[in-house]
Amino acid sequence: MPLEVPASKLSSPPRQDPVVSGAVAEGGYDVRPVAATVARTFSDRWATYAALAAAEFRRYTTYRQAVIAAIFTNSVFGFVRCFVLLAVAGGVTGGMAAGYSRARLVTYVWIGQGLLGTVNIWGGPELADRIRTGDVVADLLRPVDPVWQYLAADLGRGAFAVLSRLLVPVVVGAIAFDLYTPARVATYPLFALSLLLAVVVSFACRHLVNASAYWLLDARGPQMGWVAASSALSGMAFPLAFLPAPVVAGLYLATPLPYLIQVPSDVLVERYPLSTTAMMVAGQAVWAAVMLGVARLVQRRAERRVVIQGG
Questions:
Q1: Count of H helices and E strands in the chain?
Q2: Residues 216 and 128 sit within 8 Å (Cβ to Cβ)
Q3: Which one of 239, 244, 257, 287 has the minimum C-beta count within 10 Å?
Q4: Could you list the residue ranges that cross the membrane (predicted)?
Q5: pLDDT one-digit tens code per residue, 267-303
Q6: Cα 141 → chain centroid
């Protein structure tokens, strides 16, 4: 006698996983609804990001020999750059070069040497390496936004760099030269804010450069281009005021590069009136918001590409 199966059993709806139920699948992994890292904001996980920043701070305190070597190297190049720019100022009538007095030039050099490690415009390719090896898939499965995650870690690194890579070279410069002392009280909080924004802008730019590995798989080309551009046009090698005025204006309006080294340095040496200085810091804030927005947009696109590629 043939076995009869009720029609209700044949037409029963397929079982839905409660984790992915109601989700719009964008690939074979169905990771979007739970790991939708791009859908989470910084405020949603602020305690987690604070813990990440603190952990990164502690991690960098363990690299004592590397920190000492970096401080020594920055100090040596500080002397070289300082004497070169002082020679430039000495060959100019009145000792002023592009609006910088000798004391301001010396301070510009030493604060720039400290900012180099703090802003970290030559940051490592950690994200690009994780993309190349496929480890980035683990980042996408975590309940944190990868952009905010890396930003929090970079802020922790920057906090340690302020105490080591920034303060020590400035002390070395103060021992060997007469540095410019800011005359305005408002300069100090403005410099602190400008330094924070410079770290954020630098992070966003480096994140975008490394994120190119989602499409190129090897980001060494964009990384080399970034190092060349940021070294020459961020104010690290020389004050951008040495360039023609139209070029400088174009850099400030069209790129975030001057907001990495040039703007924080000019804030501290008080090259401009307070109102102009405040506008420059406001420009940093705008670029920080723009670059972070672009970084998160690129992350959205990249997550789709990772699913399509299969991890």
A1: 15, 0
A2: no
A3: 244
A4: 66-93, 105-123, 159-180, 186-205, 226-254, 274-295
A5: 999 999 999 999 999 999 999 999 999 999 998 888 8
A6: 23
